Fold this protein.
Amino acid sequence: MPRHPAVSPTVRTMPGSVFSRLAHRIAAIEGERYPLHVGDTWMEPPAGARMEDLRVDQHPGLHRYPPPTGHRPLIDAIARTRGIDPDRVLVTLGATGAWHAVGGATLAPGDEVLVLAPYWPLFPGIVRSVGGVPVDVPFFRSEAFVPGASSVSALSPEEAVAQVAPFITERTVAIYINSPSNPTGVVLSPDVLKAIAELARSNGLWIWSDEVYELYSYGPEVVPIATFAPERTFSAFSFSKAHGLAGCRVGYVVGPTLPGMRDELRKMAMHSAYSAPLPSQLAALAILDPAVGPAWVDHARTAYKQAGDRAADRLQLPRPEGGTFLFVDVRAGLRNSDDDPLHAFLVRCIDRGLVLAPGRSSGAPYTHHVRLCFTSAAPDVVDRGVGVLAELLGMG
Amino acid sequence: MPRHPAVSPTVRTMPGSVFSRLAHRIAAIEGERYPLHVGDTWMEPPAGARMEDLRVDQHPGLHRYPPPTGHRPLIDAIARTRGIDPDRVLVTLGATGAWHAVGGATLAPGDEVLVLAPYWPLFPGIVRSVGGVPVDVPFFRSEAFVPGASSVSALSPEEAVAQVAPFITERTVAIYINSPSNPTGVVLSPDVLKAIAELARSNGLWIWSDEVYELYSYGPEVVPIATFAPERTFSAFSFSKAHGLAGCRVGYVVGPTLPGMRDELRKMAMHSAYSAPLPSQLAALAILDPAVGPAWVDHARTAYKQAGDRAADRLQLPRPEGGTFLFVDVRAGLRNSDDDPLHAFLVRCIDRGLVLAPGRSSGAPYTHHVRLCFTSAAPDVVDRGVGVLAELLGMG
């Protein structure tokens, strides 16, 4: 029992800011900055779905509480778009709020969630925030992150199962999977997803499917894993990167086909944030208008693909299949004489204006990797930032 | 270890919607509705602090991620307004997000929080959401809730301590106190607050002070309890009811004068919601402009006081000292022949368009009470809704 001035064992296990050691250096950057460490988009959201479009005279009460489950017209529009029962939809504070709610609804203290690595850096802390234990499962082929790699063939279904199965213990409750993947840029095939769904079913596990980049595949078909296991899959979606509303905190989770599950999700969500912001929900509703969202996404997808391809080409990496990130093995730029070679490398990047995320925040094995978001700044800024990285990796 | 399809022990202990049993009846209301069950305000936020005022051309990037601790200019403005160190301020999803973060940072599973009752209905579930145990402490004088009560004198400091002290166990970690009080309308005196602060200190407890109604006293001086115990007090504030931004989900918590505590709060906040919405933070920043917020609050305070006084007079209750609620003993309207007399009474209210919150959601002892918000609809609507209640209580 911690009492004043001690803090709780829960937050003691949670990661702090990965950038706190670097904050003063980032603040001191002179000249142009290349902030490619956060996942975001440089594009403003579609006209019609911006805060300035939400007028009190057209939306009286828009600053008042919505229901904790979400603004009913938004829930109905989501359900219509996806062809699902609206009672499975909970509107959340982006994917972060979605997984916090799912974790709260499904984990007991000490329960384990298998996290396919490398992964979205925020995710393990979300599991910790509800008392769970994230377990790193090295999954995506690390050869693909090494400059000079040709397009590395994806895992076969058998290989995928062989990677995951050994980590299942009697404390395992769920498998977290993210495709299109942050940070690898991989889009998992239907065969692999089906094999993982069957593995989950045969072990009585939940599937937590993070599909926030579902609209950003640059070729491969994106198939929802829920297709293969609708009874056990929670699927998270977001308007953050998909539609330029990251700072507005709005997304949603679609629960499994189990009666009453949305009520359990809502309990956790309403007691941690009450509801997603109503203005953001109105913006999301505008985006679901077929006349507003799809054209923006088509434009964004083209621009994102071009930025990703240019970055991959410059860094001699396979082009991303989807998403907004590259994961880069930077051993060529590390100096073994440094105490902490990756940290020293990140500092050298910052000294040239480039901010990247350390690979370790995507999984313990990634001690010589960085994550780069190729959409968090305008394309010309990204190009110049990638150029800095290429030079530091000896690519002239 | 719950696995598919079981849910977690955490959400099993959390309350569901108080209104789920009544939802179909509320939906079926014909004629005018008096939705006095939620705490909200009928007023739109100040001009200049509405979503329509947040233009991309003036705030480029306003839809993008802010830092998880909050938008730096807002933190600085809060710190300046309060005369405190900005490193003590975490911007949150209203008070709900504030207490979720504080609970996550200070409670271990099973730790107890003393909750002075009757209380804000959402609060115990927030404690549950982080694995804590809320303990009801009957505190405010229940004589004051009975129609016909004269203005009931407040508790003396000795009485206040005598009410709370017996509930302290070796599992107690914090005392939650809310003044001006939701739902009683009481503003606690500096002497009472000081006595509680000393009780907390002598037992090594944290103080969780909910001050979201700090600007809405209708007479008594509002003194922050942190004055008496700055080393152990977390104070939550909100722009929700204070400035008409409830649906925008923005508030903040000021941590104790302990180095590093804000980092612990931020961990929980960023892993449950990432950040408060940036547009809402920009609206809050506009409100802190001395030319924008104070005039609105002065206007609101006058209107709220008038609505509260009229409601209290009609119901023959002491006028509220602060806040936006009345807590009403409705025994005069209950029928012992009903299976669940309070539920049946709430249904009779709904059949006449009036929605109230059951007293039980503010504490187990309040089985014959209701909570009424006198600012959640326009004053004339509130007046008519209060009239319905008065009639059902036999006041003609």
Q: What stands out?
A: The mean pLDDT of chain A is 95. The domain at 9-44+293-392 of chain A is CATH 3.90.1150.10 (Aspartate Aminotransferase, domain 1).
